[in-house]
Amino acid sequence: MNTQQFAPISLCEMQDVRLMNRVDTKYALCSAQLNDILANLSDSYRIQTIDEVMVASYRTVYLDTPLLDMYMLHHNGKKERQKVRLREYVDSDLAWFEIKQKNNHGRTNKKRIQLASFNVYATRESEELIRSNSQYALNDLLPQLGNSFKRITLVNYALTERVTIDTGICFDNFRTGIHSDLGSLSVVEVKQSGASYSAIKEEFFNRRIHPLNLSKYCIGTVLTDHQIKSNRFKTKLNALSKIAN
């Protein structure tokens, strides 16, 4: 993937594009499609660059109840739902405790606090955050699924849109011990505060690449737990398989 074609944007400048309350649109692409599309977008976006690094490493741990209540709400089609996760920006040695809330209008609202360590999340601040923003208590939640990937972040010149491109997506289930991955598939997420022009969405539309509403937590859980209820996600897994092939 050629990242050198994009002008850089610093982490400091990125503070103006945090988009903690936003609308997300997701797509899944094979690597050949992605490279072809990115070649046409260098005039529309800059690339997040930290210490000359343009491709960042991420780690995530998803927390859920012992009965996987958050997974089941998503599986059962509930519009209002949450994810609770730990997120580590590996190259920057930064870790966060995050709550992502999706409402019935499709908007995502994210609350987070910084952690001193990725491995120590049960802090007073984390307990207060989840008590104020969730129906769950922190001691009701367990680490259920690990996830790692590489991410490129693009920002449009108007600073109204952020595009994340995740590759090398892997999953490890802490309950079953099963490892899986998405192979050569990339997940692209377009994040906007509201309706506005998007160069990358126009590229997708012109190429008849349609949005695919998928959750890494749910897809990763299905791929690594062969006993879990998963009927609702079979169509999406089939779609991912067709894209990969």
Question: What does this entry look like structurally?
Answer:
The chain has 245 residues and is of the alpha+beta class. It is 23% helix and 37% strand. The chain is built from seven helices and eleven strands. It has an eight-stranded antiparallel β-barrel with strand order 2-7-6-5-4-8-9-11, surrounded by five helices.
Give keywords.
single chain, 245 residues, alpha+beta, eight-stranded antiparallel β-barrel, 7 helices, 11 strands
Write the layout of secondary structure elements.
Layout: E1 7-9, H1 11-14, E2 21-29, H2 31-38, E3 45-48, E4 56-64, H3 69-75, E5 81-89, E6 94-102, E7 107-115, H4 124-133, E8 142-156, E9 161-173, E10 179-181, E11 186-192, H5 199-206, H6 216-224, H7 234-244
Q: Taking all residues together, what is the mean pLDDT?
A: 91
How many helices? The count is: 7
Care to count the β-strands?
11
Main sheet overview: 8 strands, antiparallel, barrel
Measure the end-to-end span: 19 Å
Q: Shape from CA axes?
A: globular
Structural class: alpha+beta
Determine the fraction of residues in helical runs and give it as a percent range.
10-25%
Oligomer: single chain
Quick rundown:
This protein has helices spanning 11-14, 31-38, 69-75, 124-133, 199-206, 216-224, 234-244, and strands spanning 7-9, 21-29, 45-48, 56-64, 81-89, 94-102, 107-115, 142-156, 161-173, 179-181, 186-192.
